[in-house]
Amino acid sequence: MRVLAALSGGVDSAVAAARAVDAGHEVVGVHMALSRTPAAERTGSRGCCSIEDASDARRAADVLGIPFYVWDLSQTFEQTVVADFLAEYAAGRTPNPCVRCNEHVKFATLLDRALDLGFDAVCTGHYARLEHGDDGRATLRRAVCSPKDQSYVLAVSGPQRLAHAMFPLGDVPTKDEVRAEAAARGLRVAAKPDSYDICFVADGDTGGFLRGRLGSRPGDVVDRDGTVLGSHEGAYTFTVGQRRGLHLGRPAPDGRPRYVLGIEPVANTVVVGPIEALAVTAVRAGDVIWFDDVADGARCTAQVRAHGRDVRVRVRLADGLTVVLEDGDQLHGVAAGQSLVLYDGDRVLAQATIEGTTGPGAASGVASSALTAGTAAR
Amino acid sequence: MTSYLDHGAATPVRASALEALVGASATSGNPASVHGAGRAARRLVEDAREQVAAALGARPGEVVWTSGGTESDNLAVLGLYRAARRTDPTRTRLLISAVEHHAVLEPARWLAAHEGAQLTELPVDGDGVLDVDVLNAQLARGGVAAVSVMWANNEVGALQPLEAVVSAAARHGVPVHADAVQAVGQVPVDLASSGLAALSVSGHKVGGPQGTGALLLRRGVALDAVQHGGGQERGLRPGSVAVAPVVGFAVAVAEAVGQQPEQAVRLAALRDELVTRVLATVPAARLTGPSDGPRRLPGNAHLMIDGCSGEDLLLLLDAAGIAASTGSACQAGVARTSHVLAAMGVDEEHSGALRLTLGHTSTRADVEALVDVLPGVVARARNVRQAGAA
């Protein structure tokens, strides 16, 4: 096959490309330039946006002996991933930019251009497994290396697009093994640190980035009764479930920690309260992408945040997609805007975007359209 | 089997230059030393200097060794400007063409940003040729420290009206520098008859070793050094001279200039065939830059192809074994829009630029290979959904 290997400059994508070469594919490397104003050097644990990262990617391609190009996708990235990130926070939700990047950039703009240029597949260093069916649809499974599993952020691309993807690292047992393989292959990115932070937030200060782009917008921090407890510089810098950084002068009367329960973008208030108020019994989601048929009432597991634990749920298909937690399983602080991914064992069944939740206090109204993360906390 | 159609970026090393380079590489003396080993090294360096001077119409004392075109251009632009302004503080203006190579453009902009230079980038016509009337008008305003106009443009191959530039500047006593990196070996280049104050040459564009070059600086022209050290090259470019590379460079310059008359005829014919056949087989492609041969480098063809990107063309040509270029510079590998095409008023939004440059190793088979694959490559590139349309 003719394979386009996306090279971020990190160790995973370099080893993935190397494995594609070993498998006998005709491989061409491409580094996506995603920042309009790339910094010269990598800072902190950001992974792909500096000139140094582009140089690391080029060096890896040269060591592998494959052609290498840099594609400027900064405009697409700004218009989709960054714009969505800002709009979602402004609306009181918690976006996952990695999901949006896979949805709009990697397995959309990049994949389309690759296919148009005559490539058969795009190879990346993601940790997930794919099985390619004859029907032009891929089956997506969790990676063998479960701590690194990225099926949660990949599912948004759906079975048709992922049919053109290749994840050679899906079956490696550990990241250490990838590093050892890189070293053995003479790839000097073997020891490069992992990236964790949001790649376009230069110093890891998401709140500062949001204030810079959205402006300061002071408002009140209130408890569930509406009593004003403090103030904030912008409701959009808070996330449901957050405990630190509330800067409330006085402790709760019972001395227990307070958490963000919800964000009201219109009133510009942040609602705080005790941890039990974050408890969720059902999650409603929209924009569903199905990998397989799932019947109303079916039992499966669900993941509602990156690196989150699976919970057992029952599926309701009455109004969009709702999952109801099975007795004995617990979820706290589920944020609207994050992805809901359903699994049958390690196989992805569906992906959707979380719109709202129901707490234990609510009636059986899981299908109520008024349920947002904010109102659910009242 | 690959076809190399990017001689404008670097042309293969000449066998004679390689032999000279290797032969001189065992030289261990420093040419600045007075002992026997130093004398032996100096002999090689000065032989090379005389060889380059003879080939390019200069006196040996007018040849300053550098590391290549960019260094020569920087030395000329910064050095001429600073020397002129130092002797006459009212001379604060710098005139360059809008289509200069970045090696001229960036030091000129640096002077404007950091040393108070008033920079004027002179317009060109639709073929990329300097408008001499505008130059004349700018010179008439006075206060000009230096003018820099390239001999031939590296992207679209347009030869600049240097005779007119030099005579206009001479009326105002202003020194003129020309970046002749693309011109040597393609068209006659002669410092004495050009009337230029300074002229830049690069080794790897004429079949010499990479990392070599020279600034030809007319005797009596004031120029301030950019780097400072032990006084080599009359203090204009201090640093121990790289003996063996200089020897290889001189052999390459001599051979390129010696073969220039017949190469110009041969390459122009090959280039014309390439252009004619491409325009006949690729719909909505057009030649950029001067269409008549005498106003263009013989080895240069520059095309705009509608409905695709130059980047995609290069990737597909590379996969088909053809080395080509868009002609414009990259920044961290990201293709930048060409300031040359912008100055010419050429739309790059809906067309891809393709620069094909021929040199001393080019053959008819190279042209055949390109003509065979280009129609299919263009059809494929036109099929690509453009990023940003999402």
Kindly give the count of domains of chain B. Answer: 2
Helix content of chain A: 25-40%
| Sheet having the most strands of chain A | 6 strands, antiparallel, barrel
Biggest sheet strand line-up of chain A: 13-16-15-14-18-19
Largest sheet, strands/sense/barrel of chain B:
7 strands, mixed
3D structure, described in words:
In chain A, strand 14 and strand 15 (311-316) form a beta hairpin. Chain A starts with a strand and ends with a helix. In chain A, the strands form five sheets. Chain A has a six-stranded antiparallel barrel with strand order 13-16-15-14-18-19. The radius of gyration of chain A is 22 Å and the shape is globular. Chain A has 378 residues and is of the alpha/beta class. The longest helix of chain A has 20 residues, at 97-116. Chain A folds into three domains: 2-191, HUPs (Rossmann fold, 3-Layer(aba) Sandwich); 217-273, SH3 type barrels (Roll); 278-376, Translation factors (Elongation Factor Tu (Ef-tu), domain 3), CATH 2.40.30.10. Chain A has helices at 11-22, 51-64, 74-90, 97-116, 151-154, 158-162, 175-184, 206-214, 373-376; strands at 2-6, 26-33, 68-72, 121-123, 128-132, 138-142, 165-166, 219-222, 228-232, 259-264, 269-273, 279-280, 282-290, 299-303, 311-316, 321-325, 331-332, 339-344, 347-358. Chain B has two domains: 3-9 and 260-382, Alpha-Beta Complex (Aspartate Aminotransferase, domain 1); 15-255, Type I PLP-dependent aspartate aminotransferase-like (Major domain) (Aspartate Aminotransferase, domain 2). Helices cover 41% and strands 15% of the residues of chain B. The two termini of chain B are 38 Å apart. The model of chain B has no long low-confidence stretch (mean pLDDT 95). Classes of the chains: A alpha/beta (378), B alpha/beta (390). The A-B interface holds A 28, 31, 33, 38, 51, 54-55, 58, 67-73, 75-76, 79-80, 104, 108-109, 112-113, 116-118 and B 311-312, 314-316, 318-319, 330, 332-335, 380-381, 383-385, 387-388, 390.
